[in-house]
Amino acid sequence: MKIIPLHNQVLLELEVVKEDKAGAILLAEKEVETGIATVLAIGPEVARPKEGSKKEDSYPYISVGNQVFTHGVAGKEIKLDGKRLFLVTDRDIFAIIEQ
């Protein structure tokens, strides 16, 4: 199955970190959402650079493969192939993470 976002929607896969939580008797793992996600697909109304513009002259745009910072479980959750994906609007993304 392939999910194609419409309008200004962005499909994200949220990064989840497993955190060990020590207890008196048991050691349990707890999943912690970091707010960091990978962009899997973007809708047609998400802002894109104008054709012919130079990278240094343009605003930082969201594109597939970017790592971004969002507020955790914003938007609509979708479970697909054992993964938790989220459809959010482009305005739910606060920053692009460059490495």
Oligomer: single chain
- Biggest β-sheet: count, sense, barrel? 6 strands, antiparallel
Number of domains: 1
CATH class type: Mainly Beta
What's the gyration radius in Å?
16 Å
Strand order of the largest sheet: 4-5-1-2-3-6
Shape: globular
Number of helices: 0
Low-confidence stretches: none
By DSSP, the count of extended strands is 6
User: What is the straight-line distance between the termini?
Assistant: 31 Å
CATH topology (level 3) name? 10 Kd Chaperonin, Protein Cpn10, Chain O
* Content-based structural category: mainly beta
Draw up the topology in text.
Elements: E1 9-22, E2 27-42, E3 67-70, E4 76-80, E5 83-89, E6 93-97
Antiparallel strand pairs: 1-2, 1-5, 2-3, 3-6, 4-5
Summarize the model shown.
It is built from no helices and 6 strands. With 99 residues, it is mainly β.
What does this protein look like?
- The structure is a single chain.
- The chain has strands spanning 9-22, 27-42, 67-70, 76-80, 83-89, 93-97.
- 0% of the residues lie in helices and 52% in strands.
- With 99 residues, the chain is mainly β.
- Strand 1 and strand 2 (27-42) form a beta hairpin.
- The chain starts with 8 loop residues before the first strand and ends with a strand.
- Strands 4-5-1-2-3-6 form a six-stranded antiparallel sheet, with no helix packed on it.
- The chain has a single domain (9-97), classed as 10 Kd Chaperonin, Protein Cpn10, Chain O (Roll).
- The radius of gyration is 16 Å and the shape is globular.
- The protein contains no helices and six strands.
